[in-house]
Amino acid sequence: MSVFPENPFVFGEIVDDANFVNRADELNQLVRDLADGQKVFLLSPRRFGKSSLVSVALLKLQKRHIRTVSLTVSSYSSYAQFLEKFAEKALRAAGPWERVKNWATRFARQVKPELNYNMNTGEVSVSLGRGSTYDPGPVAPDVFALPGELARNAGFRMAICLDEFQQIAQFNGGSVENVLRNQVQQQREVGYVFAGSQPSLMQEMLSSRRPFHKAGPQMFLDKIAAADWKEFIARQFRKRGRTLDDAAMETMLAAADLIPYDVQRIAHELWDHAELKDKRRLDRSDVHSVVAALVTSQSAYYELLWEHLSARQRAALQALASRGPSEIYAQHVRDQFRLGPASTVQKALQSLDSRDILDRYKGNYFFLDPLFPHWIRKRGA
């Protein structure tokens, strides 16, 4: 019985350096800025590879002996829990314990947390307080100051990623932004990347009315160019003596809308399809089969999502799936899909954006899941 080689196309998880496609300029800039102690704001729609970019950047910084910390803000249910994990990860990154215990002890005297160190594993844990009435606000400045204290006094540099940063406004009525900004701007030895997957919310956080206005450079991730995808995909398939003809490659990239997650997802399934059928040359029909199978596998989810949309939202999605963003406001399209006036269309699109069904890229709305419009068109056929 033959054993299939490992599928080289990775989606739904952090992509490692070996499977990273392009982003060379963004990666080099991010590494350089973080090494220099900059505070960088990374804006990107979901599924564009933001977290993978940051992960590879942190790995490169570790090779330069820069300590790294990564937290996903949306993983924490409360401000207190977020602060606990922030302090824990900063202390762990700064270790070993013998090197930082003096500063950890000083932190403990100021903040008065429950601080535990496991002699066997070297892990440190922090507990700030228990109960739903506990207010972590008074100790937050000391927690956020900790990385700078550790780096400055122990003689190293640090880089910290706060992923899904737009969610931080959910903590403590938004005042966390003031506290965090006040502390990080004093930390010359610590680089920060504030990464957000809802660009509209991130841009609001960076507006003139908010604390992080002009706090650091902004980086917005574009889609990866088709030429880079073609070279990467063709190279991976050649390792198994397989090829995709030009039409197959174009069809696959169009189906994925050049969104990194979905290019990798369709390529992953196409790889398995080729292995199972032992096909050496793949054409457009193979891509159509794989895309159809993926849409079918998601149909229950799409149906549930569709049931919870209003008639106006459904009509807007049908028009967008059929005609694309450039025509959706045209009179004949609004008449065909009974969309109503342009202002009504705009409200429907904005509501779909807020539900993470659509997002904006270079001024136009697009489907965050590029297979959803395939299902919509099939459903209405």
Q: Indicate the CATH class of the largest domain.
A: Alpha Beta
Q: Specify the overall morphology.
A: globular
- Taking Cα atoms only, what radius of gyration do you get, to the nearest Å? 24 Å
Structural class: alpha/beta
Helix content range: 40-55%
**Uncertain residue segments:** none
Number of domains: 3
Give, in spatial order, the strands making up the sheet with the most strands. Answer: 2-5-6-1-7
CATH fold node name of the largest domain: Rossmann fold
The number of distinct helices, counting runs of at least 4 residues, comes to 16
Number of strands: 11
Q: Say which CATH homologous superfamily of the largest domain is assigned.
A: P-loop containing nucleotide triphosphate hydrolases
Question: What does this entry show, briefly?
Answer:
With 381 residues, this protein is α/β, with parallel strands linked by helices.
What does this protein structure show overall?
It is a single chain. Helices cover 51% and strands 12% of the residues. With 381 residues, the chain is of the alpha/beta class. The longest helix has 18 residues. The relative contact order is 0.12.
Looking at this protein, list some descriptive labels:
5-stranded parallel beta sheet, Rossmann fold, two-stranded antiparallel ribbon, Helicase, Ruva Protein, domain 3, alpha/beta, 381 residues, Arc Repressor Mutant, subunit A
Write the layout of secondary structure elements.
Elements: H1 24-35, E1 39-43, H2 50-63, E2 67-72, H3 79-94, H4 97-111, E3 114-117, E4 124-127, H5 140-154, E5 158-163, H6 176-184, E6 190-196, H7 199-205, E7 218-220, H8 226-238, E8 243-244, H9 246-256, H10 260-277, E9 281-282, H11 284-297, H12 299-307, H13 311-323, H14 331-336, H15 342-354, E10 358-361, E11 364-367, H16 372-380
Parallel strand pairs: 1-6, 1-7, 2-5, 5-6, 8-9
Antiparallel strand pairs: 3-4, 10-11
Helix pairs in contact: 1-2, 3-5, 4-5, 5-6, 9-10, 9-11, 10-11, 13-15, 13-16
